[in-house]
Amino acid sequence: MEFEFSEKAAFQQYFGAAHEMVRRSIKEFVNGEIMPHVDQWEEEGAFPRELYKKAAEVGFLGIGYPEELGGTPGDVFFQIAAWEEVMRCGSGGVAAGLGSLNIALPPILNRGTDEQKQRFVKPVLAGDRIAALAITEPGGGSDVAGLQTTAVRDGDYYIVNGSKTFITSGCRADQITCAVRTGGPGPHGISLLVIESKTAGYSVSERLKKTGWWASDTAEIFFDNCRVPVENLIGEENQGFYGIMENFQVERLQLAVMANMTAQLALEESIQYAKQREAFGKVLTGFQVTRHKIVDMATLVEVSREFTYRVAAGIDAGLNRVKEISMAKNFACSVSDQVTYDAVQIFGGYGFMRGTVVERLFRDNRVLTIGGGTTEIMKEIISKLIL
Ligand SMILES: Cc1cc2nc3c(=O)[nH]c(=O)nc-3n(C[C@H](O)[C@H](O)[C@H](O)COP(=O)(O)OP(=O)(O)OC[C@H]3O[C@@H](n4cnc5c(N)ncnc54)[C@H](O)[C@@H]3O)c2cc1C
Q1: Residue of 137, 251, 268, 269 with catalytic role
Q2: How far is the CA of 333 from the centre of ligand 1 (A)?
Q3: pLDDT class for 3, splitting at 50, 70, 90?
Q4: DSSP state string for 2-46
Q5: Are residues 223 and 97 in the same domain?
């Protein structure tokens, strides 16, 4: 295999024997519980709810979370190893759906009370409840400071009105970590509330139909005079914007890893196909143009993965890596854009056919430059930090 040397080097630098054990157990889980069904789930547009319980039992959901909440603490490379292995199922939708807790729980973990962690984190890590993050609204996602869903204090409750859209795991979430306006306009009027789906006045749309990520449920959520107890406020009132911004580092890291793995899988599929597909009496790797295309793909994947790992190590060390993680996300997405495009090209007509892995990777990839902050928003962040 062409990549053995560099994989070993990366392994030695960032991953130790304990990470490898986690990787192996997640690989087994993916091979046993996801791979046999993934094509069917993609076509059906959902994976079964029980998969959360199974993912909890194998320890996947709790990786990186405190032990007292049912998690297994460890550095960020445990999560990266686990995310990479789940992405090996070839469905961004399964990975995104199973991973929605990783964007929903960190604000509660970082800013919530012990009681809130017991109530809203522990059962999610156990696979008994599903958590989603709800920031984006039909009127706009990039301009977080402009959000319009209101939460007006009424005694021991907030009365919530408005709507959220494009929410991953939104159809079946039992709880959402939701950004609401409790104060005046702009970033200083935003708070985070955990809203339970059983709350009167809370309703969800049908699953939204998407270009990719078919197996993940994506919903619009409506609030019609929802009475949310004040004890569900995460952190201080009107300080929610900072909780949202803190959260973006992990979300962007997760998306960079997804992009790198999307590219890695597209590359592996291309190598395998190009070695056996024949044209004009020889295999595709017999053409220099194909060999060079694959070399360019491999080079981009290696460079992007190394940079992402390096930024992750900085985040893990507690350093401010806002600029670098924004760069890593953008770079990884530009690589996965290029590599999935080239992979479809190498597959020719088969690359355009449903049922071919590269066809799904090509579709799933498209959302990565949009979710978790668009490429343009990443560039705005970077420009403010370097200019
Ligand atoms: C499949 C999927 C899953 C998602 N999951 C979630 C989720 O779980 N929770 C959640 O809260 N959200 C989720 N989102 C929403 C996602 O975060 C938003 O789509 C994203 O932030 C962009 O917001 P928007 O779609 O409203 O685009 P807009 O903000 O309307 O942007 C439209 C275009 O204008 C550009 N633009 C906007 N502002 C600027 C600027 N200042 N400078 C330059 N260009 C600019 C954007 O880059 C983009 O190209 C999901 C989206 C998708 C598609």
Answers
A1: 251
A2: 15
A3: very low
A4: TTHHHHHHHHHHH--HHHHHHHHHHHHHIIIIITTTHHHHHHHT-
A5: no
